[in-house]
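Usage example:
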Amino acid sequence: MASITKTFPDKAQAASPPPASKRRTSSLRPSAGWSWRLGATLIALCVAAPIGALIWMALGGSLEHWQHLGQHVLPSALRNTAALLLGVGVLVACLGTGSAWLVTAYDFPTRRVLLWALLLPLAVPTYIVAFAYLDILHPLGPVQGLIRDVLGYDSPRQFRLPDLRALPGAIFLLGFVLYPYVYLSTRVMFATQAASLLEAGRILGQTRRGVFLRVALPLARPAIAVGVSLALLETLNDIGASEFLGVQTLTVSVYTTWITRSDLAGAAQIALAMVAIVVMLILLERHGRRHQRYANTQRMRPVQPERLSGARAALVMALCWFPIVIGFVAPALYLLGETIKHFETTGGVSAQLLQSGYNTVSIALLATLITVAAALVVTWAVRSAHTAKTRFMKLCSRVATVGYALPGTVLAIGMLLPIIGLDNALAWLMRPFTDTPPGLLLMGSTAALVGAYVIRFLAISVGSLESGLDRIPRSLEQASRLLGESPAGTLRRVHLPLLRPALGAAALLIFVDTMKELPATLLLRPVNFETLATWLYAEAARGTYEEGAVAALAIVVVGLLPVILLARHQLKSGH
Amino acid sequence: MAEILQLEAVTLAYDTPQGRQGVVENLSLGLERGHIGCLLGASGCGKTTVLRAIAGFEPLRAGRIVLDGTVLSTVEFELEPEHRGVGMMFQDYALFPHLTVEKNIGFGLRRLDKAERARRVNDLLHLVGLEGTGRRYPHELSGGQQQRVALARALAPQPDLLLLDEPFSNLDIDTRERLAFEVRDILKATQHTALLVTHNQAEAFAIADRIGVMQKGVIAQWDTPYGLHHAPASTFVADFIRREALMAQRAQAYLRGEEAG
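Running the assembly step on the lines above writes:
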């Protein structure tokens, strides 16, 4: 017992109260954590600003504007966009659900590889798939040449495949590169929810196909809705593929209205039309998910796949590999081949390409850092808010994640007004200090671009950090506080170490997405500032494909990183 | 001996969309220095909310809480948890999974220098009977061992008051009983003041010097175990205490073969 009195000498003597320095009484002051809440509110306001600006700008246009748009620009662009969305939606739903069902219900050679390989097209951005196929399927290119040889024709004038540069071509390419969104969500649903229901269906006398149509498909509807809406948001966002393939979508119209005609109000009006479509897509997804509470909550059991052999196995294999070949293998091999050819002929890359690469990486790193930090502020503010303020904080959190649904072009147009306004304000502030007008500080730097990236991708880090924080029990915070640690200290010593996986995953996803981004980058970058994506876009527009393939290959390789992450997660969790 | 913890007419409530829901109404109690108190009651009677209010995680609607002469909470004022000099043991142990046992116990000892901190941690490990486990991580320990680490960690900064929030519920029965007696021995040896919250009568009677039987946000009686048994203040208390005693009696009679089933 002697050691105990040594450990607690105070207690042994029924000691006097601890020294005054240990206890500070606090007077009335704003409740703890106000700085976090202020930060979160500011971030939410920043995200909401572009939409507000859009509405403001659109209202600023004159009536003739609206008339002109309504008569000439909007109808055809709207028609094209609607047709594109419809076509891509149907295609990704079929490809994604079909492949998910085939790998779930049947067992055949290479099935285990297919489970993650079906995700590969996610690494290929839409503009790169268009870039690649325009060359692959060029009338003078390898594929058509082969077909001509087989059929005995000599020149493209005697036989050529229908031009890829049309709406059907766009639907085809976008469908085959965006189906993984549907595959992913549907596959998870089949793998975790389906087993007992499917078996019940079988027992009740349905064939495998009947089970698919009557049980699996309705069950998967929420997952299909989620996947399709994500794919369609990507379609709406795309500018590279639509423009290369000659489809005048709303996105392309916004771009040309602003760049070639300097008509900001007109561009804003078209952008608002796109926002309306986004809202419709989100509502559609909610509607598709409305029965999600019917999901099976029983123990997860894997579906027992039916073993196939012979011709049937070959057929199913071919059906499953087909989308991967079109969506990833063919473009990747083409890019690889062109890159090797390029290095063989020129032995290196141009300074411009290197500069673009450097720009891309540095801006991606900066955007990632800021986005993760901003997400930390928002999620921590929600976490540490007390009762009444929680609802407002949750609202801020939702607003902050709205940027993800906005197409890059819409976001960029929406940011132009606030940025120019800020620039003017800064110039006015600096007038007493300098003689020469500073010009457009923000627009001339990459600040606007980084801001756009942050707003667009904040949802990724907020989502990741939110689920990471949810996994940390509140009792850990309370324990830390009672051991004498302040809220900020608790964040530093307890939460951040435990959030490392979530932070890492978010950083990786944002970094890759920033590197791939094209629409907003085209509009907001400073003069003479190229990223790999914009440089590639310029090369394709000029028709010079030589070095573009190297840039494209670099983007695809980087794009593989999150796919690998996803694939490992799938393999580990068994679905 | 003077009372070190005083709760005076404490009222606690939650705000729900349907309005304010009272949880604790006009509760008063006093705990003497070096004593172990206990709030005993069924789930939903408000005992945990009282504990959280003492720790600083629940605002007061009325009344005040005083610890060793310092006002912790009133309606207008709340001292931050980190400045209250209160320690706590949790139902889920709440050990930091990314830190070793040593680092867990030393978490609240930032102000000491390294050598002093190491010495204190070692003494505490010895106190709770976990010598040699300092380098391990919480997930490598059993439930009972984890709870001992939690005790050591809570005692390390020498709190004026130790709160125990149903700390034995996640343990199996044997470990529970053994640990309950051990915790009492340690607390008595170090002369800490403690307040336990539980729904388990056996634990309450094993550990506590004073027990408050709670029902729907009110203390029906605050007394020694003897007093509760032999001088219950109300039918509720009598039934509450006697029910368990009655069950124990019937179990023994059955085992002796005097009663069937």
